[in-house]
Amino acid sequence: MKQRSNYWQLLPYIRPHRLTILLALLWIGVYTAFWPIQAWLAGQISKYVGTDVTMLAKIAVAGGLVYIFQGVAQYCMNTLMAKAAFGITLDLRKRAYGHLLGLSGDRLSQMQLGDLSYRLTEDIDKIGEIVNKIFHQFIPCVLQLVVILGYMVYINWQLTLAVFLIAPVIAVLVGWFGEKLQKQSLKSQNQIADLSSLVTEDLGSIRMIQAFAAEDYARKKFGQEAEFNRQAKYLTEKINALQHPIVSFLQVVSILFIFVLAGIQISSGNLTSAEFVIYLTNIVLIISPIALTTSNYNELKQAEASVDRVFELLALPQTITERPDAIVLPPATSKIEYRNVNFGYTSDKTILKDFNLTVKAGETIALVGTSGAGKSTILSLLNRFHDVSSGSISIDGIDIRDVTLKSLRRQIGIVPQDTVLLSGHIAQNIAFGQTAFSIKDVEEAAKIANAHQFISQLSQGYYTYVGEKGTTLSGGQKQRIAIARAVLFNPRILILDEATSALDSESEALVQEALERIMADRTVFIIAHRLATVRKADRILVIENGEIIEAGTHSELLDRSGRYAQFYARQFSKGI
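Given the sequence above, the corresponding structure tokens read:
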């Protein structure tokens, strides 16, 4: 059971904006001070109605000035509080996104993308909205209630005592409804996130849905999730709808009770008609802040569900972290060494056991083997997408855990099997991750990657917009853009992960030619199932169950008639 609200965890994000908040609080004080003045002016008017027109005019002018000054104070407090609230939202959103980027790929793969997107957008927006309301509505209303109630005590404490007798009943009811709303809002937020995840998943798989004629299935599944979402939101609104008439009824009863007591006070001479007008004006003035405070409290409890979800994300541990004294990795010039490396994705399943490998600078190493043998794992450890369970990986004698992640990954380029292109123009995709680049450098990289010709034929050339995931380009074109990206990145170490496996023969020839260009003077790792692409490697390592069972050149391994020779014979007998 949660003992403390996660709103307290917003304090570190509030502190940088404390000066703005302090100025806003000063203006709130000025704004609030004008309320009892208005009530006092109303009482003065009652004294001179029908007797002194000049004095009434003076009071009216004074009232107008009070409203003007209060309006200025309200503008200042609202703008300052909005500035602080949206600054807090921005800081929280950037912190959450940065934390997300630091999570391991395995952790992210277990989470729903739609849910993560919802937490970073809608949930944080709700937090911003409620923080803004707390600052420019809730706090002023609470202060207004304190000031006006204090003035009411000063005028007639007996009448005000009646207010204090009823107020706790209203407060208990508001608190009870608030807790109900908070729990229901958490369910509602989770339902919305599930619906968002389903939409993201379906839209990303729309071709598969159409190919399998599964539109009815997808429509039914979406309808069920949408119905769950409707039910959750409807129940939230039912709780809200029940609260307002109950609280309003108690407010009306309390006002009627005060009128009865005021009549008794006036008849007994303990209260003048002018004082009653002032008191009555105060009652009118506290109705709005009571309603707003109740409404804000409900919204506060509903938004707590969003706070919980965002800080639940921030609480996820980052398994790959830098040491406080991490150094910048110098340019790799010597060797890469795996020494007695052990690793498993789970504690009960070991992928690599006492794995050892030394790779000289400029050497091309090919990793071959069946799926699940551990090829990709070996290279994901080099990039520190995961950390070894024991043993070490070093570059030029420096343990990669002792260097900054940025300096390590800046020296490793990857050309993956499935090229990821983002929304934007082609030049932006080639220069991905680089904040400043020249179009000339982009063009040179594209020429090396055999991509310049087809890019130049596009309607806008390098500024042609490619849709999300690059759906407007062919597989070979996307792969050549990935190679151009690696060229511009200019890494010391290059990883080619099944870079030609999904291409037709013409595209493969162009990609293979481009790859051979960028492999020069670099340390290269090739992961491949198609053995025709690894024949020129300096060393071919056959990986099985996380171990190197064979190593040598293409011709050496064929002469041994071992596992590699079996793979090779099987593929070429099938014409692969």
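The two ends are 60 Å apart (CA to CA). Try to locate this feature in the token string yourself.
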